[in-house]
Amino acid sequence: HSFPTRRSSDLVSKDAINSYSVSDVYGKQIAKENWNKPSGKIQLPILPPGVYFLKFEKNTGIQIVKIVKK
User: Fold this and answer.
1) Across the chain, which distance is largest between two alpha carbons, in Å?
2) Rg of the chain over all Cα atoms, to the nearest angstrom
3) 53: nearest Cα among 13, 24, 26
4) How does pLDDT run across 4-24, given as a tens digit for each residue?
5) Number of Cα atoms under 13 Å in the Cβ half of residue 4
6) Residues facing 58 on adjacent strands
């Protein structure tokens, strides 16, 4: 996923998302939020260009998505 300068992105999941977190390539957690919704708009923190990982915790498991911010 690419997020040029936006601070938010639409997120849709079949399973409810309990929480999500954003980490950098070194594993340092930058943001975390309890969510408890199946879909909506997530707020990404203001980040410099780089590669980040968005981790979703669901009842069915954990999903990690790579984000490249330009």
Assistant:
1) 32
2) 11
3) 24
4) 344 455 566 667 788 889 999
5) 0
6) 17, 61
Question: Which uninterrupted H or E stretch holds 62?
Answer: strand 61-69
HEC profile for 38-53? EEEEEECCCCCCEEEE
CB within 8 Å of 24: residues ≥ 6 apart: 30, 50, 51, 52, 53
Residues 44 and 32: their CA atoms lie apart, in Å, by 10
What is the total residue count of the chain?
A: 70
d(CA 40, CA 11): 5
| 29-63 pLDDT, tens digit each | 998 989 877 666 776 767 888 899 999 898 889 98
Query: How far apart are alpha carbons 52 and 69 in whole angstroms?
Result: 8
